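SUBJECT: protein chain
CONTENTS: sequence, structure tokens:
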Amino acid sequence: MGDRIFDFNSSTIVNPEAEGGNEAGTAASHAFKVVISDSKELSPETPIMILTEGEEKLPRHAVGVFINPLRGNSFAYTGGTVEANVSGLDKDGRDLNHPVLTIDKRFVELEKWLGENHVSVRLTGESREEGYCVYKIRAVNPSGSGIQSERDRFLQMVIERLSESDAPEDGDMDEEPAESGQQDLRDLNSMLNYLACARHTLPKNMQVWADRSVNLIKSSTITPEERRHAERALQMVLNIHWKGEYFASIDPVRARQILDEELYGLERVKQRIMETIIQINRTHTLPAYGLLLAGPAGIGKSQLAYAVARILRLPWTSLDMSAIHDSEALTGSPRVYANAKAGRIMEAFTQSGSSNIVFIINELDKADKNSINGNPADALLTLLDNIGYTDNYIECRIPTNGVYPVATANDKSRISDPLMSRFAVIDIPDYTPDEKKIIFKKFSLPRVLKRMGMEASECVVEDRAIDVILEKYRDQTGCRDLEQAAEHLAANALYQIETAGVKDVTFDAHTVRRLIF
């Protein structure tokens, strides 16, 4: 194509060879521009590309192939029948090509890949004054009819990730495209396809790491075991949707509603959570500090953590620190071991499929500080600093600027000062007896009845009976015992209804005392 010149005034890239025409008369004889766009929605107004139409307008759904970019960036419309070796001319010698006028910079490598691999496609677009605006591309069978399902799934994944990404910086598209192959990310060929189409969606350092990994995999000097580990690491990284640092605003009214749905009371705690995360509405970045919810067992710390994930509209993953006894479990094991694997932090990214997650760290105070293989709690420091951490298995720095940590602890005095300094600490008090009574009536019992498929009228617990339950568990913190008591009573009521033929059961103080004491 020749050297590309970046025009800072028009924010486009222009092919200088195209301006003067092409004496050979090939499909390359047209001007094209690469437009920088940050739109996350594809539409006729913000298309993937715009094609030249000429006298004959393209239909809303146009089936054809892209001509190999070495011959020119054009779409060959075949009217419904696709041939893999299409020349761009029909049987009468008429030109079927519709040259690319402009293309979103994010999709340049994808268009090149489609052309080089003769992928049969169905474009969806709209004829407008500026040309045929393409906003959807589907992979179809070579006959032109029917979706080629496996390849189309791969194509839609790539298009979705590209549309949500930022435009690559200058120089990002100068690399040679990778080899082509299958249509998913479970084998090497599909991973090479993805790197060819959407390499810039990876963080900068991971683009270099991916190239190094591919070279290692292709090397003839490594063992099959080393190759297996390298492929596994590359697969994990490419299957993660590496998103940007922009986070959408939250709706304060809906956020408060979510908190109220999860737990009753705790007004000061909910207010503090809202104050901590509401700053996202101005900065559109995550708060500098995560949340540490500290308080006695059973008061709903984990429920509040899950509520935060719902408010932020992010996937979440949880880690139980009481089950982690050495730092390697978090940071992965080196590939020199046959059974080496990535750490729990990297696995969390893989399981969620996204780099932007809420990382719920349960029982932070129970991390084993005396482990001979390092304190696992200290291994969390780089994660919490949002500067990235290195997984020993992946052998690459993993960006963590899209991770929002929410930790829970029963005894915050057992947490080290360096860890504490990474959190906004929220102390959660135990509920009062009056609050526990309301929680039993309005939350615990209704939730149990719904889970068991019972109507509220089938199991009625009198107020004095609830007082008996509270008396039984007056020395216990939280509300777990209340839900267990509700489960006991509901199960007893259901048993009587199913065996004795009664329609409903009412529990008074005497009956409850007999059942639970």
The chain has a mean pLDDT of 80. The first helix runs from residue 108 to 116. Residues 5-156 form one domain. The two ends are 85 Å apart (CA to CA).
